[in-house]
Design a protein that fits this description.
The complex is a heterodimer.
Chain A: H1 2-61, H2 64-87, H3 91-145, H4 152-174, H5 178-197, H6 206-317, H7 333-408, H8 414-441, E1 450-454, H9 455-465, E2 473-476, E3 482-486, H10 487-503, E4 511-518, E5 522-529, H11 561-571, E6 576-580, E7 586-593, H12 602-613
Parallel strand pairs in A: 2-4
Antiparallel strand pairs in A: 1-3, 4-5, 5-7, 6-7
Helix pairs in contact in A: 1-2, 1-3, 1-6, 2-3, 3-4, 3-6, 4-5, 4-6, 5-6, 6-7, 7-8, 9-10, 10-11
Chain B: H1 9-24, E1 37-42, H2 49-59, E2 62-67, H3 70-79, E3 86-90, H4 94-99, E4 103-104, E5 106-107, H5 119-122, H6 138-142, E6 143-144, E7 150-151, E8 157-158, E9 161-173, E10 200-203, H7 206-219, H8 233-248, E11 252-256, H9 259-267, E12 273-276, H10 278-286, E13 291-293, E14 300-310, H11 315-328, H12 332-338, H13 347-351, H14 356-362, E15 372-373, E16 379-381, H15 392-396, E17 399-402, H16 409-421
Parallel strand pairs in B: 1-2, 1-3, 10-11, 10-12, 14-17
Antiparallel strand pairs in B: 3-14, 4-14, 5-8, 6-7, 9-12, 9-13, 9-14, 15-16
Helix pairs in contact in B: 8-16, 9-10
The chains are: A alpha+beta, B alpha/beta.
């Protein structure tokens, strides 16, 4: 499509320019050929004028060389015209050229007659002069021999007549006029009359007959001179001049036609130049229009579909739902792109479904989490209320039992005393349980503020605070870090884990090793003992509330210790687990984030505030 | 050489020619039946193929026509009389031929229908009221005196056989030049009307064209002539001064040298008014151009055909020449040329060979009663047309001048060249 568009543009521009250039070139060629042609016609006109000069020079001055030159020029002119006729392609000009040729041929043919007649006339003039002398000589002879009948007076008259005839004849040659012709004939008539009037007898003798014949020849030759003169004068002045004038007229017509053609060609050239400009302009406009059409077509065929696909892909990338990829039906590269995009769309749709499912699940989880949090809060609230509110009657029971025991110790049987003691033990246990429960429920609120804490110091202080057996070793494996965290929860974690180690220990060489590993974003503490260990199936259970692996009688405790630890660790964003096997000791490992946040809610804070007030 | 009584040079020359012919007859007589050929030199006006074939058929002999341009044939005839037997041209060539001794006199007694020949060539006037016309009216040159001079008096010997004749004027294209009234408004002066400048032509023949110009100059009041038929040198100078001035002003398209050329001038539109001959007018009209052959109020320029016998023709060929001359006056040729617009000297002989419509149109000047065909078989005159100038008698009663070779002929040739070259 693109190639076709450019091909059309190229063709239009080249074709239009070629048309314009060809027209202009054609005009210039016509102009040039017409100019050359006009120059040839001018040359022909010059030659005919030259010929005419030579012809007149010969006709009136007898210039023989001029006749030769006229003939030579005539041949040349014939050849020129023949060539021009051969070159001409114009019907109208051909007509005039043919006319010129015809007039030239007539002109030159007549000139040949003129040459003949003029030469003949010259010869005859010479002959007339000779004949005049001969007549005179004959008259002398006749006079001398006295053998003729003409007397002297008549002889002189005849002689005078012949002389006058000769003079008139020569005058005619110089300046032809019919009066001279009549004069010659009149003089010759008088001579003949004189001869006749002096005739002796009826017969003319030989000399007289000779004289009559000579007079006859004189007249005959003179008449021939007259005819030759009139003939060549007529030919030169009328026929040939007429032909030459027509020749010039025809050549002038050709010149006019040529000039007209030149003007026409110049006008055409001008209009063709304008036409070429217009064509070029039109082709440029056409090219622009076509290029715009091509562009629009290209935009419609390529750019827009690509744009639509791009927009679709962008939308797909924004996880928008697209019903259909545009251009799927096409069989070209854009169709391939659309098909490829369709794969993306389908994947997106699947992802969308998954995301929707995920969102649903998350929402569900969120709801559940909120429910759980609410439940926990309610539980914490209940535990706090229960433990707080139960402690007062419990203290009352303890006090009452103490008072009963004190008042009636002596009156009470042993069993009752023992029972009463047992009741107080149980009340104590109940009270500790309630304390633990209260602590657990307030774990989130009793964190205090974040502060700089030397954990090693806390370990040592914990050892001091708890009932640490004297034979039990506490080791700190490496230097424990100073961290920014909540002091109270951390102290309770260490105290509970270390207490737990003291409670569950073997009899000999029991020890606790505390260590810490920097995990980058958190510190991982480890409190390991070499006690009896915990079977793996209990590794999770031990962190649940009130879960005990040993009976109350075996190990004192409320079963809340590890649950509280877990809750404190998790409240600070950490995790806790136990690595242990039976008889292999137990290693409690927990993490404390370095960048700890006070994530307590306002309600929790207010709850804590309320608790602290209590 | 035989002795003679009272001789004149002309008879001497003629006799010597006959003696030459007689000399050949001294050879042993062997009868050889040979078909003689009559050689006729002339112009295309009368040397037409139809005429030649008809004459050969009627006369049972061979006839050779040698048509040519007026000047060429005159020159040939006057210088080489042995090259032809009969010469057909115009009365204005007669003086030249006679002076040249190129032709011999014709015996009237041997022309069978001589008595039928009308007065135009016998007395110069076809009617009592007719103008003879200036210049060499043919009747002045017709008869030959015993001493070889040309005269109007009957001698029994004539220099030419009168036969074809006509009047000429100018033709004009009525699409351009407003149509005039014959003999009333149509005038030779139109040739010099400046309105037609550049589109005017004259015939390139001094013995003819000079009179067209003179008639025009006279009609326009530019000059007058003592005797237009025999102009003096000063009159010629004055006339040519006008002509040269006109030519320099571009008044003339040119001079035509043949009838076809004259027709071409007008059909191509190069000319709207010019000297014309009758066939030229017919040709132009045949091509749809309304060419009117004017009947000028000043009168026509007339011409007369002359059939001359070569000075060198003798014996059986001379007899044949007489036969041919008699054939021309026998009726058919007169009818033939009548259909081309020419007149014959004994028209009554041809009348029976023309239809009434033809006779009425061509000779009587009446409207054509029907379409009339020319000698080429095509309609040349449409029904209702009237010949300009009227009847034969009316036309030849209005002759201004005859084509003439004047005494100043040679001088006019020189001025003619000046005019052409101007």
């Amino acid at each position: 499509m693109l190639a076709a568009g450019f091909l059309i543009l190229f063709t239009i521009v080249i074709a239009s320019n070629l048309i314009g250039i060809n027209k202009i070139r054609s005009n210039f060629e016509t102009f040039e050929s017409t100019s050359v042609f006009a120059a040839k016609i001018d040359s022909i006109k010059n030659n005919i004028n030259l010929i005419r000069q030579h012809v007149l020079s010969f006709a009136f001055a007898g210039n023989e060389a001029a006749a030769v030159q006229a003939r030579e020029l005539g041949k040349e002119l014939r050849q020129q015209i023949k060539q021009v006729i051969a070159d001409s392609e114009d019907e109208e000009i051909d007509y005039h050229l043919e006319k010129m040729n015809s007039h030239l041929n007539s002109y030159l043919d007549n000139f040949e007659t003129v040459i003949v007649e003029r030469k003949l006339r010259n010869e005859l003039v010479q002959q007339i002069v000779r004949e005049s002398k001969n007549i005179e000589q004959l008259l002398d002879e006749m006079n001398a021999s006295n053998a003729y009948t003409v007397d002297k007076v008549d002889a002189e008259n005849i002689r005078r007549n012949v002389l006058r005839a000769e003079i008139s004849a020569l005058e005619f040659v110089d300046d032809p006029d019919a009066t001279q012709v009549r004069e010659v004939q009149e003089q010759l008539n008088q001579a003949t009359s004189a001869l006749n009037s002096t005739m002796q007898g009826d017969e003319l003798n030989e000399k007289e007959l000779q004289l009559v014949a000579m007079l006859g020849h004189f007249e005959q030759d003179f008449i021939r001179v007259v005819q030759a003169t009139r003939g060549y004068l007529y030919l030169v002045n009328v026929v040939m001049t007429g032909e030459a004038v027509e020749f010039s007229y025809q050549s002038e017509r050709i010149n006019q036609i040529s000039n007209h053609r030149l003007q026409e060609t110049a006008r055409l050239s001008s209009s063709n130049t304008a036409l070429a400009s217009n064509i070029a302009l039109a082709s440029a406009i056409g090219a622009i229009v076509i290029s715009m059409l091509v562009s629009v077509t290209l935009v419609r065929m390529l750019v827009l579909p690509i744009g639509r696909i791009t927009n679709t892909l962008t939308a797909l990338s924004r996880d928008e739902k697209i019903d259909q990829i545009p251009g799927m039906e096409r069989q070209d590269e854009i169709g391939d792109m659309a098909k490829a995009a369709n794969v993306f769309r389908e994947k997106n749709l699947q992802t969308e479904v998954l995301l929707e499912e995920t969102r649903m699940l998350a929402k569900k989880l969120d709801i559940q989490a909120k429910q759980l949090a609410q439940s926990n809060e309610e539980l914490d609230s209940f535990a706090y209320v229960a433990s707080h509110d139960l402690k007062s009657p419990l203290r009352a029971i303890d006090n009452l039992s103490k008072w009963i025991y004190a008042d009636a110790m002596e009156v009470l049987p042993e069993d009752s005393r023992e029972n009463l003691q047992e009741m107080r033990v149980r009340v104590k246990r109940m009270e500790r349980l309630l304390d633990d429960l209260l602590t657990y429920s307030r774990a989130k609120q009793d964190s205090g503020d974040i502060e700089k804490i030397d954990t090693e110091q806390i370990v040592w202080q914990s050892q001091q605070l708890i009932d640490w057996p004297a034979d039990m070793t506490l080791c700190i494996d490496n230097e424990l870090p100073t961290i920014h965290s909540f002091r109270l929860p951390l102290e309770r974690i260490f105290q509970n884990l270390m207490t737990n180690a003291t409670k569950y220990r073997t009899d000999c060489d029991s020890k606790v090793v505390v260590s810490c590993t920097d995990l980058g974003d958190s510190f991982q503490f480890s409190v390991a003992d070499n006690g009896p260990g915990i079977a793996s199936e209990f590794h999770t259970k031990i962190f649940e509330m009130f879960k005990r692996l040993h009976s109350q009688s075996e190990v004192d405790g409320s079963g809340m210790g590890l649950a509280l630890v877990k809750r404190l660790v998790e409240t600070m964003g950490g995790t806790i687990r136990v690595e242990s096997e039976v008889d292999q000791g137990a290693n409690f490992i927990f993490t404390i984030p370095k960048n700890i946040q006070d994530e307590r809610t306002d309600s929790e804070a207010s709850l804590a505030l309320g608790a602290s007030l209590d | 050489m035989q002795n003679q009584k009272k001789v004149n040079r002309r008879s001497f020359l003629e006799k010597t020619a006959v003696a030459g012919a007689a000399g050949t007859s001294l050879a042993p007589l062997v009868f050889i039946k040979r078909q003689h050929t009559l050689r006729v030199l002339g112009t295309h006006v009368t040397l037409q193929e139809e005429l030649r074939k008809r004459a050969e058929k009627d006369l049972g002999c061979k006839i050779q026509f040698e048509p040519g341009g007026s000047a060429a044939v005159l020159h040939k005839a006057s210088t080489r009389p042995e090259s032809f037997d009969l010469y057909e041209q115009w009365s204005n060539s007669l003086k030249v031929l006679w002076q040249a001794n190129a032709i011999q006199s014709i015996e009237v007694d041997r022309i069978s229908n001589w008595s039928e020949i009308n007065d135009l060539t016998k007395t110069g006037k076809i009617s009592q009221e007719a103008k003879i016309g200036l210049g060499d009216a043919p009747y002045k040159l017709l008869n030959v005196t015993p001493d070889g001079k040309l005269t109007s008096k009957h001698t029994g010997q004539v220099s030419f056989l009168p036969y074809v004749h006509n009047v000429d004027s100018f033709g004009y294209n009525s699409n351009i030049v407003p149509k005039g009234q014959p003999y009333k408004t149509e005038s030779w002066g139109w040739l010099f009307d400046e309105r037609w400048a550049g589109k005017v032509a004259l015939v390139n023949a001094p013995t003819i064209g000079i009179f067209d110009a003179a008639l025009a100059a006279n009609a326009k009041g530019m000059m007058s002539f003592n005797d237009m038929g025999n102009m003096t040198r000063s009159e010629i100078d004055q006339l040519f001064d006008f002509l040269i001035e006109f030519r320099r002003q571009g008044h003339f398209r040119g001079m035509w040298s043949s009838v076809p050329q004259s027709a071409e001038f007008m059909t191509r539109g190069e000319v709207v008014i010019q000297s014309m001959f009758s066939p030229g007018v017919s040709t132009v009209k045949g091509q749809g151009i309304p060419c009117i052959y004017a009947a000028p109020k000043e009168g026509y320029r007339a011409w007369h055909g002359v059939m001359c016998l070569s000075a060198k023709t003798s014996g059986p060929v001379k007899d044949l020449a007489y036969d041919y001359m008699n054939w021309w006056l026998s009726g058919w040729p007169g009818a033939f040329i009548a259909r081309q617009g020419y007149y014959i000297s004994n028209p009554q002989r041809s009348k029976s060979l023309l239809s009434n419509a033809e006779w009425d149109y061509w000779y009587q000047g009446k409207p054509a009663a029907e379409d009339l065909k020319g000698t080429d078989g095509r309609v040349s005159v449409k029904k209702g047309e009237v010949r300009t100038g009227g009847s034969y008698q009316e036309r030849f009663s209005n002759i201004a001048v005859w084509n003439t070779v004047m005494d100043t002929y040679e001088y006019s040739l020189l001025r003619w060249r000046d005019f052409l070259s101007a």
